[in-house]
Design goal:
By secondary structure, this protein is of the alpha/beta class. The protein is built from seven helices and ten strands.
């Protein structure tokens, strides 16, 4: 039986608004994610998907409720402790790639390792191996501006794996891609999952969600399976 990696209990996120009680982006979320699962979170724009992903990735904190990561309650962690968890435990893949356009693919992949104080030579060798994993070693010296949309997203996936995270969070990873590139990205994500990577993917595309092992649906801040 797979062990739990994530457990959320009554997770609530309220954004303050002037002259009101605030906007409830998340409402009493209760969900478990086991190690090695590939989970998709579906729902329309504004339903709370990205807010939930930001909390799961230590980019934000809940207003109420508890978030347990690997059995530890991380809900009240300081910014510094959450930053350390992000660097060590989580890889992020975003719809807009979030790559530095004037750097090469190699340097973009190296960057998280350098932030983590990995020696430059070691970081370079690992970055090349990660690019090779996504068939991008021949594009290693190309700037991001010279890559296609699919190549940029595969570079972003290589970067997300730079510090060997246990959890990969993907926020609409195919949102800016054509159907062929989207299919390639999903194949790569499934390969990573088959190797044991725990993946949580936000998407509004039910066809992509059907390729994952479990689908969670969000609407108006509520979550259900």
């Amino acid at each position: 039986m797979l062990k739990k990696m994530i457990k959320c209990e009554n997770l609530t996120k309220i954004y303050p608004l002037k002259n009101s009680r605030g906007y409830p982006a998340l409402k009493n979320i209760n969900v478990d994610v086991k190690r090695g699962e590939f989970v998709s979170i579906c729902g329309p724009s504004g339903c709370g998907k990205s807010t939930l992903l930001n909390i799961l990735g230590f980019l934000d904190i809940p207003t109420k409720g508890q978030y347990y990561f690997k059995g530890k309650n991380v809900s009240g962690f300081t910014d510094a402790r959450r930053s350390l968890l992000r660097r060590r435990e989580v890889g992020f893949v975003f719809q807009s790639f979030n790559l530095l356009p004037r750097l090469s693919a190699l340097d973009n992949v190296k960057l998280p390792m350098l932030y983590n104080k990995t020696p430059n030579r070691e970081a370079g060798e690992k970055a090349i191996n990660l690019l090779r994993l996504f068939n991008l070693e021949k594009k290693a010296r190309n700037s991001i501006l010279e890559l296609s949309g699919g190549e940029r997203q595969r570079t972003a996936m290589a970067r997300a794996l730079a510090n060997s995270p246990d959890l990969l969070l993907a926020d609409e990873p195919t949102g800016n891609l054509d159907s062929v590139s989207s299919s390639e990205i999903m194949k790569e994500l499934k390969k990573l999952n088959q190797k044991g990577m725990t993946i949580i993917m936000v998407t509004h595309d039910v066809n992509l969600a059907s390729m994952t092992s479990r689908i969670l649906e969000m609407k108006d801040g509520w979550l259900r399976e």
